Amino acid sequence: MFTGLLPHEHGADTQSRQGLDPSVPTLAERLRARGYSTHQVTANVATTDIFGLDRGFDEVVRIWKEVPAQHRKLHEAMVLVGKPRLRKKVLSTDWIRGKLSEDIEAGKVWLQDTVADIFDRARRILAHNERKNQPTFLFINLMETHFPYHVAPIFEPLGRGLDAVTEVVALYHLVNQTFMTTGKQPFGPGTMGRIKSRQRIAWERIAGQVDDFVCELHEGRDTTVMVGSDHGDCFGEMGWSYHFNNVTDGGNRVPLFWLEPGGASKIVERPVSARDVHGAVLEAAGADVPPSIVRAPERSECVLESAWYDSQGKTLPRYKYNQLAFVNGNDRFLRRDGHWLGAQVSTLAGEPEFRPLPPGVDPVEELSHEPESRTRLRRLVTDFEAYSTRIS
């Protein structure tokens, strides 16, 4: 959404751990050049300087720096247990020199609500700019519905007694993706169901607050409001639970709401790629949209990409693959290790398994794409293969 590009084009991915290519302009940079005051209020450390997503913002508000920690000792212990990277630092000079403070502070958002704090901070920014008649681009990132899914203002398990212990252990395995190093699913369907329930409860807990805030932003104002999600979670589909870097519907089919000032509502039935939100925001803001950027959701091409996740250098060979996929009607086609696989889109009944296509079948060439679309997909596949070889 920030660049309108896929990882192999903008350069930031979880395999190389590099940030955005400096030559790639971000949404905030483009809008700031248009005269917007640009602000980010976030509960997600990943949207800050780690990958260069802070570029172009006049102000980045890291909400964990502005809210007090609840149950601080528990908070510090759980953050350290949940993050192997931090456990290693405990034995390094970083601990002695106090450099862990930022990582510990950022972990607050895993264990306590910050949604009200974020909305209040956003209101103050908007009010300040409105008094100056200054147009504003405001990006907000909430974490209440992100892992570990807030079911209460301060972290607590849904279960009690032994069930609570099992639930916390399962959350540990999920955040550390231990199946990638063991090849085994560490918990059963009952525990997985409880984690799914956590996510649903987390949605329900903040739905009213989000709705009220969106109405406040939209009604009676010359404001375009977009509400979406960075990714979903793949809970148990394909026999494993996968929080990172997947190209399945379970991981990527997420809601997207777009409210124009005083505009009539419409529903777009076909899949829309989140990266094409970039061009739509630019157009709504009156900024120049590069010819290569899609600006209308009806023209969006649903292409997904992921790099394999390096779990402390112990990821099993079977999980070391990069993937590119695209959606065509009711079918998905996946490029992995130089081969094409196919599956239908998922339903509430489950996630269909990807299976190899017959030898010699190339869905890019054989499906009835428009010539322009076929050319773009062909180029994406070629560039992705080269990028995948370079980072692996």
Topology readout:
Blueprint lengths: L6 H4 L16 H7 L3 E6 L16 E4 L9 H11 L1 H7 L2 H5 L3 H6 L1 H4 L3 H17 L4 E6 L20 H15 L2 H4 L6 H30 L6 E3 L21 H4 L4 E3 L17 H8 L18 E4 L16 E6 L2 E6 L2 E6 L10 E2 L6 H4 L4 H21 L1
Parallel strand pairs: 1-2, 1-3
Antiparallel strand pairs: 4-5, 6-7, 7-8, 8-9, 9-10
Task: Give a structural overview.
There is one protein chain. The chain is α+β, with helices and mostly antiparallel strands. The chain has a domain at 7-67 and 112-300: Alkaline Phosphatase, subunit A. Helix content is 38%, strand content 12%. The protein contains 15 helices and ten strands. The strands form three sheets. A five-stranded antiparallel β-sheet has the order 6-7-8-9-10, covered by helices on one side. A hairpin with a 2-residue loop joins strand 8 and strand 9. It starts with 6 loop residues before the first helix and ends with a helix. Mean pLDDT is 85; it is low at 89-100.
Short account of what is shown:
This protein is of the alpha+beta class and 392 residues long. Helices cover 38% and strands 12% of the residues. It has a domain at 7-67 and 112-300: Alkaline Phosphatase, subunit A, CATH 3.40.720.
